[in-house]
Amino acid sequence: MSVTRKPTMHDVARRAGVSTGTVSNVLNDPHVVSADKRERVLAAIAHLGYLRNSLAQSLKSESSRVIGLCVPHAASAYFTSLIDALEDIAYTRGFEMVQILSRHDPDMEYRRVETLLAHRIAGLIMVPSQSPHRTFDLLDRARIPAIMVDRFWSDERFDYVTMNNSEAMTATVAGLVAHGHRHILYTARYPDLVTTQQRITAFEAAGRAAPEPTRTTVLVSGEDEIAFGQRLIAALRAPDAPTAVIASNSVITLWVLRAFKAAGITYPDDVSLVAFDEPVWADVMTPPLSIIRHPSIAIAEATWELLMERLGDSRKPPAEAKPRRHVQLPATLELRGSVGAPRIQAQS
């Protein structure tokens, strides 16, 4: 029985009429190759069915073109857009990206990051869990370049790229107060998260700083959508009920909208609504949903540049490495049709 030999990089180079170095550049640094040669190499790869063995290549060269990405989940609009932006950057820079999910579980986060490290990734981009300390220690021991995204911790071993949550929340409360709201409710799913705590602190401070007395209420959603919906509707039907709701992400926004529908509550007639996220369906809602837009592309770009800088530092003496940094980027608040004046004020 004959066995078909797997095509090699030399076979690709011969068919494309280029050197093996050019083939390597197309696979690893495509931006340094002319468009004509790049197309010829890609056509030869497709014709021959060439597949490179990234792990074997990294073992041979003691380098890797694989970046790990650890996020809690891919359900929210923000994480989806962040993942897409990082994937696009990795592809254009000649890197592969391997994604893992921590499910907000510190033990799962540790085990899955440990598995990534065993596959000799070049670096890691991570959205930390509620308690990432074991994983942080693991990364420090492994001496792997790692950038933390979205959630800032007082751990100076790593760089951080985050949205300015405090600034975004302060602006949102100010916008709602300007519309006449004097009791605002914020829904949060994970109260122990650093990001959630930053938002709650800013939320309550903005209420105290408002020009008119403004009450702020935090409602923790938990994991049970039905139970959350019941508690939300009870809060909105209580005396001195909130007249505006800020939902912590696109998933919780859906929970809020389902609860509104079941209870016959409309926005902005009965209550105003703002999402701390930008669901893809936000602008097709009637009326359009008000959003706090994460700077996903800017976060991805800043994260990638920091990671590349740290990859360069890993080949230098420790004394030459640059100090760790925390990059904060602004969000964009868009108050659309889902925000209006409170019903009592609108009727007066």
UniProtKB/TrEMBL annotation:
**TM spans, by residue?**
none
Q: Which residue numbers delimit the HTH lacI-type domain? A: 7-61
Q: Which CDD domains match?
A: HTH_LacI, PBP1_LacI_sugar_binding-like
One molecular function GO term is: transcription cis-regulatory region binding
Listed SUPFAM superfamilies = lambda repressor-like DNA-binding domains, Periplasmic binding protein-like I
The record's InterPro entries line, in alphabetical order, gives: HTH_LacI, LacI/GalR-like_sensor, Lambda_DNA-bd_dom_sf, Peripla_BP_I
The protein's UniProt keywords, in alphabetical order, are: DNA-binding, Repressor, Transcription, Transcription regulation
Checking PANTHER family in the record gives: HTH-TYPE TRANSCRIPTIONAL REPRESSOR PURR-RELATED, LACI-RELATED TRANSCRIPTIONAL REPRESSOR
What is this protein called in UniProt? Answer: LacI family transcriptional regulator
Please report the organism this UniProt entry assigns to the protein: Chelatococcus asaccharovorans
